[in-house]
Amino acid sequence: MPHPEVPSDRGEFYGAVAEWVAKTYDKDRYNQFKETLHPQLSERLENADPAGWYPVEDSRIIYENMAECFGDGGLTDFVHFYVSRSIHGFIRGLVAFISPLGLAKRALALWNRFHSTGRPQIEIVDKNHGTITLYDWNYSPIHCKVHALWFAELVRVAGGKNPVVEETHCVHRGDEFCRWEVSFE
Ligand SMILES: [Zn+2]
To answer: How many other CB atoms are there within 10 angstroms of residue 11's CB atom?
Structure first.
């Protein structure tokens, strides 16, 4: 699939959303959520090509509507679901012996398989503390929130306890990049 012209995410995201909503809520709730979306976007939940590219702008709408329909707890639960689903694919087998920040580093190395723009860099400060900086990504505050949930979940999956992820720099507050401090026990 050629590189997209607008900033994009892979279509597998839409299937993951549909799967999560269907598994977590009943059919009525799923239909209510679909009704919050533009018909084209609502259909995409079921028809997206997992390997296709779709505009980042659309993932913003999906995340915002998910937060609206299912609350912040819903977003957290979705990320938990999506990370465990992905782990079974691309980094299965690593989680048993890799450190939490090591896992985050491996996962971030795959960033551009899933996003057409953005350059993440991780700096490991010590065993339980690191920073993750994302360059060339300036789309929406909800993406910043979802990224923080992903980082916490990756740490947790690799055995880090009580992860705390705080966004210390943000393009939506005038910084040149977004940066998260990640620490855990
Ligand atoms: Zn940000």
So the answer is: 18
